[in-house]
Design goal:
It is found in: Cytoplasm. With about 450 residues, the protein is α+β, with helices and mostly antiparallel strands. It is built from 17 helices and 14 strands.
Length: about 450
């Protein structure tokens, strides 16, 4: 293989400076964010925040801050819409810190238990599986079925009854501390497996390790109350109160009747050399021992769009996962392939790979979860052709239009990978796929990336 020669470098430099456009782009991009100069301002006026159907807006706009809790925020943001409608209240948030706390505890136990299973199989520490598991054992990210596990076991509660902590909105230090200890624990468990320790002794060791995890997490996040009393005013300024009540009973009595986690169906679009109308799961992708698996019902992209459209037409928001960093602009809040022109600035063509190829070559994966709250259609009587989508984000009001983004329909096709809709909007033939035995994908498969990546702010 030929090395880069000095003559080649001279030729590259000469060719670069021979084009005045390169100089202009260099002068601009060395002093500012290059993305600013790739934004096609002629396209920014094409996607206005006006929609054929829109879910009622609720306040306040949520903000996950410096954490990867997008999947939790998106779920609780979707959940609060029918809940607030039911109680006739103007502003409300569920406690994200409550689910965050229990996810750290449960995920640590899931990791330790999984490592014991892996070590019993004889997997080497330097092998790909163990290395992958140790890379990020207690990340902030997650998938929909992990939310089902948490809500069904621990319920939900108002944010005012268990508010944010510093480490819930800035989780890096907590995660570093827990990761260090979990790796220590994994080594100790491997030693026990190699010494043929009994299952009872290993279980006792994990309980001892979890006591430290609980202590560290409690110090950083606080401990969620076992019961709470919530006082509030409805829209008529009438005083109301709920409780004392447990978070689980609060979910069962006040939330589940209008937002049942068990009635939601997770549909993905994975066009790699895999079959549609099949079920998939990712090995060791979970957060709760004894909880349900993370399952994907793989369908063509039109199924994701049509079920999301039906949900929004009925006033129900939709949780979804996407690759938020592609062809997106933070200031304008646009997710639009046509709005970013890399060729004009850099002289390179984009989107040379199709959706399946981007997944295969590591060019795209799920990085962020948000909520669909509106949709534009072509205006025909059938209203089956979608043109754009309204998105509620969890990055505060400074992004897009007071926190809302607008997504072009072709961006949906290319970079949305997953939606969660109520089963009432899902065709019978799609629901029938749920009865199939899932194909198991390896732990590092990109369809599990949302649980590992969390969220990437633009």
């Amino acid at each position: 293989m030929a090395e880069i020669s000095g003559e080649q470098i001279v030729g590259l430099t000469k060719a670069f400076y021979s084009d005045p456009k390169n100089l202009l782009a260099q002068n601009a991009a060395t002093s500012h964010d290059p993305l600013d100069f790739c934004i096609h301002h002629g396209a920014t006026g094409q996607n206005l925040h006006v929609y054929t159907h829109k879910v009622a807006e609720v306040k306040p706009m949520s903000n996950q801050r410096s954490s990867g809790r997008c999947w939790m925020f998106a779920c609780l943001n979707a959940m609060r819409v029918p809940f607030m409608r039911k109680l006739n209240i103007e502003e409300f948030e569920f406690s994200q810190n409550h689910l965050f706390f229990w996810d750290k505890i449960e995920r640590s136990n899931y990791f330790l238990t999984s490592m014991v299973e892996i070590f019993k199989k004889g997997e080497p520490v330097e092998g790909r599986l163990v290395s992958f598991m140790l890379t990020n054992p207690v990340n902030d990210g997650g998938q929909w079925d992990m939310l089902v596990n948490l809500v069904n076991k621990y319920g939900v509660m108002p944010k005012k009854c268990f508010p944010e902590a510093h480490s819930s909105g800035a989780s890096r230090r907590l995660n570093i501390t827990l990761t260090t200890k979990l790796r220590d624990y994994a080594k100790a468990l491997r030693d026990m497996v190699e010494k043929k320790a009994s299952d009872a002794d290993i279980e006792a060791k994990i309980k001892e390790q979890l006591s430290e995890v609980f202590r560290v997490t409690s110090i950083c996040l606080g401990i969620p109350p076992t019961t709470f009393t919530w006082e509030y005013y409805d829209k008529t300024k009438t005083y109301q109160t709920v409780g004392p009540i447990t978070p689980k009973d609060f979910y069962l009595e006040h939330v589940k009747p209008v937002f049942n986690m068990d009635d939601k169906v997770c549909i993905v679009n994975d066009p790699r050399p895999k079959k549609y109308e099949e079920m998939y799961t990712v090995e060791y992708l979970g957060n709760m021992v004894g909880g349900q698996k993370t399952l994907y019902n793989n369908q063509p992209i039109d199924v994701l769009k049509s079920t999301t459209l039906k949900s929004i037409q009925n006033g129900e928001p939709v949780w979804f996962g996407c690759d938020v960093g592609k062809f997106s602009t933070r200031k304008t809040g646009m997710l639009d392939i046509k709005s970013v022109d890399y060729e004009l600035v850099f002289g390179i063509q984009s989107l040379q790979l199709d959706k399946a190829e981007r997944l295969l070559y590591g060019e795209s994966l799920m990085t962020h979860a948000m909520v669909f709250t509106g949709v534009g259609t072509d205006g025909a009587e059938t209203e089956t052709k979608t043109t754009k989508w309204r998105v509620e984000n969890s990055w505060g009001e400074d992004v897009g239009e007071k926190g809302y983004l607008v997504m072009a329909d072709d961006w949906f096709s290319e970079f949305v990978y997953e939606v969660v809709v109520d089963k009432s909007y899902v065709p019978a033939e799609v629901l029938a796929v749920l009865t199939k035995e899932p194909v198991v994908l390896p732990p590092w498969d990109p369809m599990g990336s949302l649980a590992h990546a969390g969220s990437s702010k633009l």
